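Hi R.,

Here's the chain you asked about this morning:
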Amino acid sequence: MSFQLEKRHLGLVRGVVRHHLAWWEVSGEVAETALLAVNELLTNVVVHTSPDENGCRSASLLVQHVPGGVTAVVRDQDPRPIVRKTAAPLGLGGRGLDLVRALVDEFSVAMSDKGKDVWFFIADPEHHAPQTVEPAES
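And the predicted structure, written out as tokens:
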């Protein structure tokens, strides 16, 4: 899904993702980790990208149930690379990406002249691969 994002929309997006994960019967711990990671990445879009004239940030989110787990990609339209900052010991910010990296099994960032894709994968060993339906032979 692609959207114009404001901070107030984060809960709505989490709800959509939560329902998809439930539909796919993703295990509880994996689902909660995926929700936290998606929320952190979208929060980074809200905090670190420039708003349009209405105060919104352009973003897209792709969440997939894949063989062996869940993957998600958050895309923004900010061509600046991610800069890792050292969080202050008592500071409230600066830990989001480190938290995501610590919680997920795989993590990557792909840059382009139009923005960046931040991707993660979380393994779900308790759940089987999604079922595909083959067309009937005639």
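The CA atoms of residues 2 and 116 lie 14 Å apart.

Let me know if you need anything else.
M.
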